[in-house]
Amino acid sequence: MSRMSRFASATAMALSTTVWATGTLGVGAFSIGAFGLTPPAMAQPQAPADALTDPAMKRAEVLAFMGVKPGDKVADIVAGRFVRALSQAVGPTGKVYAFEPAEVIKVHPEIMAMMQGLSADPAYANVAVLTAPIDAPALPGGLDVVFIRQNYHDLHDKFMGPADVARFNANVFAALKPGGVYVVLDHADAAGSGLTGTQTRHRIDPATVKAEVLAAGFVLDGESTVLANPADDHAKFVFDPSLRGHTDQFLLRFRKPR
């Protein structure tokens, strides 16, 4: 399976959760394993879990770490499994901007239909779907939180351009209000591994993320081990059946100075 196909599989699973859960586009719009029509044998698949339904995602702990509160404006980058949870957390006076990179939409435009279907549901009317090139995301200003979950490492990979990561982080910095936070959740790679595992193991060294984000002007404001797994030796691909859903994940909070 190609690197883009593996990413598409993960993203399709994440995005289809929200649509299946609300019934917006109908069950089985896309396959769990890859983008595309569901084979007849999978016409009624079980909806994959999202942050509202899967306790392993530690929804309450992650949202508390982010500091999301009613009325906040939040951008979810490569939005998927946390969109509904964020929508509920910010409430009717808040806003969730579900950003899907144009590099992904170019290959799979159906993602936009899925996310727009979610935002059309009255229960998630505070969700706005955005798309633009990853290097020019055109995020709205005055954001309280920018969140990227399990996709920061993808910024370095070929299917995403690769992105100009320094430019992307600078755009996030500009979009946040003073005191706003940029939260990165991703699969941890071994200390000292740098970027060697982004393409192959779907992982990134937390120290590399820190260095890149701090270079954009942020300050490191917090770290959490709520999703850590010391038993993960970091040598396996994150979709390995023996490990999937239980990888060692880091959670970093960066703050834009006031």
Description:
- There is one protein chain.
- Helices cover 28% and strands 19% of the residues.
- The protein is of the alpha/beta class.
- It has one domain (49-255): Vaccinia Virus protein VP39 (Rossmann fold, 3-Layer(aba) Sandwich).
- Helix 3 (83-90) links the parallel strand 1 (73-77) and strand 2 (95-101).
- Helix 1 packs parallel to helix 5 (110-120).
- The model is unreliable at 1-47 (pLDDT under 50).
Task: Offer a few descriptive terms.
7 strands; Rossmann fold; 19% strand; alpha/beta
How is this fold's topology laid out?
Blueprint: H1 3-22, H2 59-66, E1 73-77, H3 83-90, E2 95-101, H4 102-107, H5 110-120, E3 127-132, E4 143-149, H6 165-175, E5 176-187, H7 206-214, E6 219-224, E7 249-255
Parallel strand pairs: 1-2, 1-4, 2-3, 4-5
Antiparallel strand pairs: 5-7, 6-7
The number of helical runs is 7
Task: Give the strand content.
Answer: 15-25%
Subunit arrangement of the protein = single chain
- Summarize the helix and strand pattern as letters: HHEHEHHEEHEHEE
Structural class: alpha/beta
The end-to-end distance, rounded to whole angstroms, is: 45 Å
Helix content: 25-40%
Say which CATH homologous superfamily is assigned: Vaccinia Virus protein VP39
Which word captures the global form? globular
